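$ run holo --ligand "S-adenosylmethionine" --emit tokens
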Amino acid sequence: MAREEDDFGSNKAPEGAHGSGQVGHVSVLLKEAIDFLAIRRGGSYIDATLGLGGHSLEIAKRLGPQGHLIGFDKDTQALELARKRLTQVNVGEQPRITLLHSSYADIAQHGPPTGADGLLADLGVSSLQFGDPARGFSFQAEGPLDMRMDPQGERTADQVVNHMREEDLANVIYEFGEERRSRRIARAIVRARPIRNTAHLAQVISAAFRPMKHGERIHPATRTFQAIRIFVNRELDDLRALLKAAPGVLKPGGRLVIISFHSLEDRIVKDALRDGAKAGVYRLLTKKPVEAGEEEIDRNPRSRSAKLRAAERTDNSASR
Ligand SMILES: C[S@@+](CC[C@H](N)C(=O)[O-])C[C@H]1O[C@@H](n2cnc3c(N)ncnc32)[C@H](O)[C@@H]1O
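-- output --
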């Protein structure tokens, strides 16, 4: 019998998947997510956040030809790469695969007609998006003020940074970045307009702070960049919509697994699962969130802030 770790193949997007100079995306809490999904051969599963297809590939390998995998991503580039990666499933073992360029907020319209046996969401941005300066997510490289996961999305970082009223900008930075110095930062940004690119934005934010102390871990622009990204992509609204739809998409016994990366997301997930459990819609599988172990954090620093929560849909059909 194959050893457990053999079942997981390579937990990294294939070399060259992202063009030159870009980093691969290492799936976070991969084994834990697959274990909580308790994948049933021949079942129907939804990956709400395909990304580079790391989690999806492990799901697809376990489904067999009678199974069905439905994957969502807002990012057309991610969809293409995930599609290629999913061809790694052995011939004869490939499940039916449906990949959708859509927000998971619309999951109720696209779920399997008879309900899903499992739904996974691994929230946030992928390393593909973060590592490509042209997408504008990173304050560590010079790129356009974009930050859209969906290249056709209507909001861009430029609209927020160069056109929003100072008070609204401060509110975005406070609400979505949990940044205490939001007013000072918003004032500095408005004074420095027009902001040319991500590097210029990071520089303006840094200048509004005292100089960084040696060894300080978090860059002064971290929270503001997070806030703008969340606002541009309506991340929290989408997450609320996903959680609202999930009980109706899952079959009784179906599993919901959500991996979040910051406290705003985790609070929303925690509250939705707790309320669902109180209403008899879910049985909680994680009392406390599951976090990455030291070995995973060493291998993949992005996993440091990951929190996985899981629940099972009960047989309470009144709430479907
Ligand atoms: C952390 S990555 C997923 C990585 C993936 N699990 C893997 O192992 O390769 C998150 C992905 O979700 C996508 N995403 C974020 N919000 C979304 C939404 N509302 N609807 C659809 N896709 C979304 C992003 O574009 C990104 O590709």
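-- notes --
The CA atoms of residues 291 and 307 lie 5 Å apart.
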